[in-house]
Specification:
CATH architecture of the largest domain: 6 Propeller
Distance between the termini: 89 Å
Largest sheet: 4 strands, mixed
Radius of gyration: 42 Å
CATH class of the largest domain: Mainly Beta
Strand order of the largest sheet: 16-11-10-19
Number of domains: 4
Number of strands: 43
Structural class: alpha+beta
Length: 822
């Protein structure tokens, strides 16, 4: 280089050396290399969805007759043929590409039918090509149909010894159906596979209405359909990819849960996300258990076989399988993301494509293929008609033609003489090549019939060539045939609510019983595990408790409802029912101090369920000393983890009962001394959370206290009051016998006082079709129908409800009706 940076040339004996700027040289060389990789190796053509290697494999197999109805051939033979003729880039590149086209877990609609070991979803590689065999699958033949009719362009191969197609006719939309993955230079493609039937329906809709919107297309093409199935969470990412060519979707494994008894469950994984290695997935799960990052798994087994995938995850007793699944989704490839990049080659340039772009390019390609195919058939029919017309002319003058040929000195002289009848050289040669059997009357008539048929065919071909509408109709008809022959059901489920699954989405909505013991053990159990019994039964064990422990609170609600925990200190905590540990009927449960941030000596005195927090509903609270308070339910919506103040309590007082009302109920407060008072809820003014409330019931003496507070709503036609005593006796009494009085009264007798009965433990307002649960101090539980309890007057002693041992007594009485579930 000179001082002014002007390139100089120097001539040497070996040739001319040219100085070049290294920056420009590197840039130009790198760009040439990049475009070679982008166009020639890594990205698919938008028309047929193939990279060059896949196209060359199918073309080579088609040429050598390795089609679906012929015997399989050694894979090494296929690879060698492709390498020698079209793709000199190494046998591994060719064989790996062919293997992928044969794997039903990698390709939605396999294009190669393989014999032997072609790998597995566990990540096993295929056997060596000398051991495996292959041939084209039937659907692959559709990709090459009419390739011999000048429908696509051919170019010289790498050594110009053969010609190869630049694109395949592609009778079905392979790019959208099978997708594509590739890494080029500075760019990559990751196109999702789709369901063939859906894609065909979408293309037909586009042909009928080219102005169709993405939303309208998504009514037909709902989203990707992966070979391994699974679940797509939401369609926002799908829509974004369809509109812009880029998007991200979340894939989740398809699972089911089985109850195997003794508080254990079994999670069955039947489908995993696309491109996930099953063996590594199981290894990862086992590692998380070993490292104690995930708890609750007792065993992991792979029971997959020819019938399908089956990964079994057995849980430890008491483990919530839904929570465990969420942990696995978070920490393993049971849930993955699939980033969609619809990058393909269009007119020799890489381009990001929307869904409508891909459909438009495919339709335009098929329009071109049909045009060229029809032109080929038109030309062939015209040529044949031209020849037959000449033969027909000869037959009309057959005697003269025979005499003329016999008198000719050579074939050329005969051809020239025949041409004097107004025929061209091709027609004359055809006459010379004509066999004598054509002179029969039957053959003569057949030639005339063939001419008529060709005239009709040429006319139809001309109509197709002249009409884009007819060509589009042909595309639809051919796609409909493809759908009929190869269409199948969708494998991947799409949850179209546009959001990810949460814990709540994974948990079945069912009625559950939530039990809390006096020593603070809580659990959730399905309501169906408790069988109804007749009154007077001995009950069944609801849980294995200590001798000193017993069920102190019981709630029947929905697994998706909120559970409000009201404590003896007048605070409230809020949880979802499904967050409570699931246990069997006999299991003990988990300490509630691990679930709620309770203070020292603070106990849960009441639990209640609600599905939503409404302004026109109220929380009515009663204390042990007879105080009652009413607060809007909506004030409890934003409860902190550490809880909220629900009521301010006097010293030595505790919160005992809570009800949720509509503001128009009657309140029934009952005391240990067998007395009850009924007054309208409207007597209680509405107050904010951090207030004390007013007097609801005056007690008999210092040993007396409120044992229960119930509500009576406006629909009281079938309602009655059930009174239960600690010794297992009780009765049902008409509510009319409990007349409405003013708040702050001492009340009237609810049941006759006696040593046999003992003190009252519950005085509940119930419907005739309700049920109730009685729980004893020893942990026995009985479920009764209200209809089984006879009606008695207010001042009678009642009858036996539950047989108790001498050292046992009734502790809690809870209804199982709409009055306890909101």
């Amino acid at each position: 280089m000179t001082e002014n940076n002007t390139p100089q040339s120097t001539t040497v004996s070996t040739g001319q050396v040219i100085d070049r700027d290294i920056d420009n040289e590197m840039k130009n060389s790198y760009m040439d290399y990049s475009m070679s990789v982008i166009i020639g190796r890594a990205l698919p053509d938008a028309r047929d969805g193939f990279k060059p290697v896949h196209r060359r494999i199918l073309h080579s197999m088609n040429e050598t007759g390795m089609v679906h109805n012929k015997p399989h051939k050694k894979s090494a033979r296929v690879v060698g043929d492709v390498l020698g003729k079209y793709h000199p880039h190494g046998d591994t590149a060719v064989y790996d590409s062919a293997v992928r086209m044969a794997q039903d877990f990698a390709t939605r609609y396999p294009l190669i039918d393989g014999h032997g070991n072609f790998g597995s979803v566990d990540g096993d590689s295929a056997a060596a090509m000398r051991y495996t065999e292959m041939r084209m699958d039937k659907i692959a033949s559709e990709m090459l149909q009419d390739i011999d009719k000048n429908t696509v362009n051919f170019v010289p191969n790498y050594d110009a010894s053969l010609d190869e197609p630049t694109v395949l006719p592609s009778k079905f939309p392979n790019l959208m159906v099978n997708g594509s993955t590739g890494i080029a230079v500075g760019m990559a493609t990751n196109m999702a596979p789709h369901n063939l039937s859906e894609v065909i329906d979408g293309i037909c809709s586009y042909i009928d209405s080219p102005d169709i919107t993405t939303n309208e297309l998504m009514e037909k093409i709902t989203g990707p359909d992966f070979p391994t199935g699974g679940i797509v969470l939401g369609n926002d990412g799908i829509k974004q990819a369809y509109e812009t060519g880029r998007g991200s979707i979340k894939l989740r494994a398809k699972t089911d849960t089985e109850d195997i008894g003794n508080g254990k469950t079994r999670i069955i994984v039947s489908e995993i996300p696309y491109q996930v290695n099953k063996a590594k997935l199981i290894e990862n799960m086992a590692g998380l258990v070993r490292d104690k990052k995930i708890s609750g798994i007792a065993d992991i087994r792979d029971e997959s076989d020819k019938e399908g995938m089956r990964i079994v995850i057995e849980t430890i007793r008491g483990t919530n399988p839904d929570v465990l699944l969420n942990q696995l989704y978070k920490h393993t490839n049971l849930q993955t993301s699939f980033g969609i990049i619809n990058l393909a080659i269009v007119n020799n340039e890489p381009r990001i494509l929307s869904l409508k772009d891909m459909i438009q390019i495919y339709v335009n390609h098929r329009m071109d293929v049909i045009q060229k195919r029809t032109q080929f058939d038109y030309d062939k029919a015209s040529d044949k008609k031209h020849i037959l017309m000449g033969i027909n002319t000869a037959l009309d003058n057959i005697d003269d033609i025979i005499t003329l040929i016999k008198g000719s000195n050579s074939t050329n002289d005969a051809r020239q003489s025949i041409m004097k009848y107004g025929l061209d050289e091709k027609q004359a040669q055809a006459i010379l090549d004509m066999k004598l059997n054509k002179l029969t009357s039957m053959e003569t008539q057949k030639i005339k019939d063939d001419i008529d048929e060709l005239v009709s065919m040429i006319s139809e071909y001309q109509k197709i060539l002249d009409s884009d509408e007819i060509k589009r109709s042909i595309i639809k008809d051919e796609l409909s045939e493809m759908k009929s022959s190869y269409g199948d059901h969708r494998r991947t489920i799409i949850l179209a609510d546009g959001r990810e699954l949460t814990d709540e989405d994974l948990i079945p909505r069912e009625d559950v019983v939530i039990t809390l013991t006096n020593e603070g053990y809580i659990k959730r159990t399905g309501l169906t595990t408790y069988n109804r019994q007749k009154r007077g039964g001995i009950g069944s064990m609801s849980m294995n408790t200590k001798e000193s422990d017993f069920v102190s609170n019981l709630l029947v609600t929905s697994s998706h409802d909120y559970v409000m925990f009201f404590t003896s200190h007048g605070k409230v905590y809020l949880k979802k029912a499904y967050e409570i540990v699931n246990g069997s009927k006999q299991s003990k449960g988990k300490p509630i101090i691990h679930f709620l941030e309770l203070a020292e000596n603070e106990m849960v005195s009441a639990i209640h369920g609600t599905s939503e927090f409404q302004d026109d509903h109220y929380v009515v609270m009663a204390t042990r000393s007879g105080i009652i308070k009413k607060t809007q339910l909506s004030e409890f919506n934003n409860t902190r983890k550490s809880g909220l103040i629900a009521i301010n309590l006097q010293q030595d007082d505790i919160l005992t009962n809570v009800a949720i009302t509509d503001g128009n109920c009657d309140i029934v407060m009952s005391s240990r001394s067998c007395r009850a008072v009924r007054f309208p809820e409207t007597d209680i003014r509405i107050s904010s959370r951090q207030t004390m409330g007013v007097i609801g019931m005056k007690l008999q003496d210092k040993d007396d206290h409120v044992v229960n507070m119930s509500t009576i709503d406006s629909d009281n036609e079938n309602k009655s009051i059930v009174t239960i005593t600690e010794n297992g006796y009780g009765k049902r009494t008409s509510i009319d016998e409990f007349s409405q009085r003013s708040r702050a009264g001492k009340g009237i007798l609810s049941i006759a006082q006696s040593l046999r009965n003992g003190h009252v433990v519950g005085c509940l307002v119930v419907d005739s079709d309700d049920e109730m649960i009685l729980t004893s101090r020893n942990g026995n539980l009985i479920r009764l129908s209200i209809e089984d309890i006879p009606i008695r007057h207010r001042q009678t002693k009642g009858i036996r409800m539950m047989n108790l041992k001498s050292d046992d007594e009734i502790i809690t009485v809870k209804p199982l009706g709409t009055s306890s579930i909101m």
